TrEMBL record:
<feature type="domain" description="4Fe-4S Mo/W bis-MGD-type">
    <location>
        <begin position="1"/>
        <end position="61"/>
    </location>
</feature>
<dbReference type="InterPro" id="IPR006657">
    <property type="entry name" value="MoPterin_dinucl-bd_dom"/>
</dbReference>
<dbReference type="Pfam" id="PF01568">
    <property type="entry name" value="Molydop_binding"/>
</dbReference>
<dbReference type="Pfam" id="PF04879">
    <property type="entry name" value="Molybdop_Fe4S4"/>
</dbReference>
<dbReference type="InterPro" id="IPR009010">
    <property type="entry name" value="Asp_de-COase-like_dom_sf"/>
</dbReference>
<dbReference type="GO" id="GO:0043546">
    <property type="term" value="F:molybdopterin cofactor binding"/>
</dbReference>
<dbReference type="Pfam" id="PF00384">
    <property type="entry name" value="Molybdopterin"/>
</dbReference>
<keyword id="KW-0004">4Fe-4S</keyword>
<dbReference type="GO" id="GO:0003954">
    <property type="term" value="F:NADH dehydrogenase activity"/>
</dbReference>
<keyword id="KW-0408">Iron</keyword>
<dbReference type="InterPro" id="IPR050123">
    <property type="entry name" value="Prok_molybdopt-oxidoreductase"/>
</dbReference>
<dbReference type="InterPro" id="IPR006656">
    <property type="entry name" value="Mopterin_OxRdtase"/>
</dbReference>
<dbReference type="InterPro" id="IPR006963">
    <property type="entry name" value="Mopterin_OxRdtase_4Fe-4S_dom"/>
</dbReference>
<keyword id="KW-0411">Iron-sulfur</keyword>
<dbReference type="GO" id="GO:0022904">
    <property type="term" value="P:respiratory electron transport chain"/>
</dbReference>
<dbReference type="GO" id="GO:0046872">
    <property type="term" value="F:metal ion binding"/>
</dbReference>
<dbReference type="GO" id="GO:0016020">
    <property type="term" value="C:membrane"/>
</dbReference>
Amino acid sequence: MTATQTHCPYCALQCGMTLTPEIPLRPGMPGVRLEPAEFPVNRGGLCAKGFTAADLLDHTDRLLTPLVRKEPGNRDSPLREASWEEAYERIVTAIRTSQQEYGPDSVGCFGGGGLTNEKAYTLGKFVRVALRSSAIDYNGRFCMSSAATAANRALGIDRGLPFPLADVAEARTVLLVGANPADAMPPSMQYLDTGRANGAKHIVVDPRRTNTANGAHLHLQPLPGTDLALANGLLHIAIREGWVDEAFIAARTEGFAAVKAATNAYWPERVERMTGVPETQLRETVRLLATEGPSMILTARGAEQHSNGTNTAQAWLNLALALGLVGKPFSGYGTITGQGNGQGGREHGQKADQLPGYRRLDDPAARAHVASVWGIDPAELPQPGRSAYEMIDALGSDAGVKTLWILASNIVVSAPHSGNVVGKLRQLDFLVVSDIFRSETAELADVVLPTAQWAEEEGTMTNLEGRVIRRRMALPPPPMVKSDLTVLNELAGLLGRGEFFTDEPEAVFEELRRASAGGIADYAGISYQRIDEEQGVFWPCPSEEHPGTPRLFADGFPTASGRARFIRVDHRDPAEVPDKTFPYVLTTGRNMQQYQSGTQTRRVRALTVALPEPRAEIHPDLARRHGIADGDLVELRSRRGAATLRARLSDGIRPDTVFAPFHWPGANALTNPALDPHSKMPAFKACAIAISRAPEG
Ligand code: SF4
């Protein structure tokens, strides 16, 4: 039996693992033994999700053939098995009908941050070249977009961590804002644990006392939606105490004066009132960051998934720049990417406004370069389309998408205001969903396409450090299951544009290298062979002689001036604040045993035994006020919908805040789709709710 080195199908840590085929569990299905590998990121560690990932491969719920509606056009009729020919025939007819009647932009695609680089690249090209449509975006818009926008503005580049994860172990002070790696990516905790064992101090900013906060030196518990004020308040103290790095600011940045002036309004007493964080904690946090370095500031979705998420990430970047942390060893600002290929997924053209290499779709030079690689006229390239939620919200409307293909996304569970999402999907003329399982979104589709999984395909992923790695095939997909790459290729052929596409992963990657060359995310020097030999290569890597770039910003910033930019940002209230009818704040997040919308992990027995259902985390004081005991059913209500969950009482959460995990249907029935004006990120992390005890049964 040949062992295959590959990576976990789930989060952005992309832990290395070894797969060895073994006796099948059931006739006709492959079996595989999964063991952790000594890859430089996970160093032999895996979390419960990774250890059980092989369960997905031969799961009884697995989609093994295409499905179509028994009565075409009637989504209330049952789904039945079909041949690929029949499925394709229905899809191509729907595409042609929509485009003849409503134009090219009436057909669109919604992608995912779990797609390999090759698939993300091909999907972006498929929409622009085969469909000639502008309608494409992906679920990463709901994940990384605020931090990405802020980093692009300040640093001229968006790479989640601009240093290897191992640097975290060497930092003396680490500030984690809205990040809970102990639950989200447990093997990464080895770096924090090593640092702490060597005397490093960790500070966690989170309205909940998470497993990460439990081990921290300091835990700051701000009211959700006030992180920007908190960051500006910390900068105010740093300026007042003379802790800013004047030499770094003068030599390597621009725009500090305006930011300094803005922080005058964030004096500690006011920030304590706004955030609920005591002044003593504010002072100690800045003191540690400024005087006990090297120091890092790491943000994640808790800071970023707000209707002012970009400016909030910007405020943390301002603080990191003012303290002179960026571009120095074991120091800096980074954002912890969530999805498996959240980083690569946003570099190769899946976003509504981007082309491969992180190029802008509205930049004439970028259009000319990519068009030349694709062999088309630049004028054929459409202009930027709508962002993810804007696209969903316009589905079925006169100017919106009429035929939609969703890949690697379960937006019925993962998008905000899920009641609206379901309503909009029902308004479509035609919906295609590609997935491994019949997700909640697939249940609404006209056609469901079964896709090959992580261990059944070749390709590359880019992890949270910007390290490009190989996903390798350990076993073939079941006979009637196809890779998305093959489906994209075959559909392009049926649409008369087949000559522009291939489904051979390495050939796609070679084209991706050319398309990205000279761009911000430059993969020109990265090859499958180099990845194999070097255990991954860090972008940017502009030539085969280039060693790759594990650490950014040592010599400069890829901005017009070569300097990092301070950008003035000010607090504004969340799009929805508590009132008499909805007096509390809902915030959402992860459980250790689940991943994203749970399409995969809710089907893994060991994970569901460990955590059978979602729990709403409620402070005992708040529970007492409403007669709620631990384990009771509670109904959470917002202006958009309601969800019933079992209560878990915890004095580790603020008494004015309720936490609900987003891995099951429910939490996003409540969340607010108010969008950040810069990144178009919805306000997942703060909305107003009411709570009451719900009857059993
Ligand atoms: Fe997989 Fe992430 Fe767990 Fe590693 S930490 S095993 S990549 S889910």
